[in-house]
Amino acid sequence: MWEWMSENSSLVQAAVGAVTAMVWVIYLHIIVLGFQRQRRTEILIHLGGARDLNARILVSNLGFEPIYILEIMLTVWTDEGERMTSVADRTEIARDNLETPGQATLQGPLKSGDVVDIGSFENLLERARAGSFDRLEPGDIRRFEITVAAITAANAGIAAATRRFSLSQDGKNLCLACEGLYARQIRGRWQRRRIERQLKRVR
Question: Which residues cross the membrane (predicted)?
Fold first, then answer.
């Protein structure tokens, strides 16, 4: 064995070098994946409290990097079709009741691990009526979707997440239910461009 290795030392050295290089490539790949995972945004959209029209809708930043909430869009589906508008501005609060100008909007920074209450569905619908939804009533809506668009220093493009909710009648009350377990993260290039086009429409 030793005799063969001494006779083929150059081949053995080349094999050891190749294995060492492969180990370092794998190690570097693991480091890069971990770095990308740390910089990747993770926006959570979920319900809090009751499951009626007073349910609170919460947005959390589960990524390691802070984000800046650029826009919150509400899309609803009725028998007449699909409608979308911005609900980032808190029009349900009178100006005289605002302690600071920043309270008039939900646009702003959100640190890692922080959560913001964007209002109840009734609040969102009231803001939508102030925009372009006119006399739309909760009972007219079959399903709605909330899209949170943000920007981050870690990436040049838009970071976004979206989640759909269904509305069903329970006696005299309307009940909200999440469709799916988690918010869908928008990371693909084509999907982010679609969000950018939507942002231009609602602004």
Answer: 12-35
Residues 46 and 31 in one domain: no
Q: Write out the residue range of the structural domain in which residue 96 sits.
A: 41-202
* 19 and 73 fall within a common domain: no
The CA distances from residue 107 to 8, 14, 89, 116, 148, in Å, are 68, 58, 8, 11, 10
Number of domains making up the chain: 2
What Å distances lie between residue 111 and 49, 114, 118, 121, 140, CA to CA? 23, 5, 16, 24, 36
Report yes or no on whether pTM surpasses 0.70: yes
Which amino acid, residue 79?
D
